[in-house]
Design brief:
Helix content is 45%, strand content 23%. By secondary structure, it is an alpha/beta fold. It folds into two domains: 2-122, no CATH class; 128-207, no CATH class. Strands 1, 2, 3, 4, 5, 6, 7, 10 and 11 form a nine-stranded mixed sheet that branches. Strand 5 (64-73) and strand 6 form a beta hairpin.
Amino acid sequence: MKKTNNLTIITIKEEEITDFSAVRNRELGKAKTDWVMFLDSDETISPELEAEIKGAIQSSEYSAYRFRRLDTFLGRELKNGENARNSFVRLARRDWGAWNRPVHEVWVGPGSVGSLDNPILHTPHASISSFLQKINTYSTLEAEYRQELGKKSSLWRIAVFPPAKFIRNYFCCQGFRDGVPGTIMAIMMSFHSFLTWTKLFLLHQKQS
């Protein structure tokens, strides 16, 4: 936890966490400043974004702000693909809202949310091996969460959804423009979808 003026920056380490929202909400409850920002341990803030954040928290227009992330994977910045289009609320007033979902968690609260122009810099995977380990962990947590919600899988979903995920990333969102790293990212995200739907299918098979 790092405090600067009226802002607390909380960095979350992902090791051995089974409920990310619970961890983030606990840390949020410890903050004393008016504004709080969350970063993962593999994320950093550029000087340009830091200056933009300082201006945002001096404004009363919004109580929360959304960010894009710029991924660097296998030495290349990924400017295309599905991940390049995603945005996340990471900066908000301390009493604005709460984190939901145990994995792929989201910070939600009332009212409109502003957007900042400069992205969070994200270097998520040091190697293919570490990427596979994270996919295995996250797909298990996601499958268990979907089971709790009463969602079901099927052989049809297992066969159709992962290829559709690849098509969206690689063709619709133009992941191919990022060369080999973009291709590998699209394949890995498709594999994540495959594991999630397969594990959910097996959980229901076990339950029944």
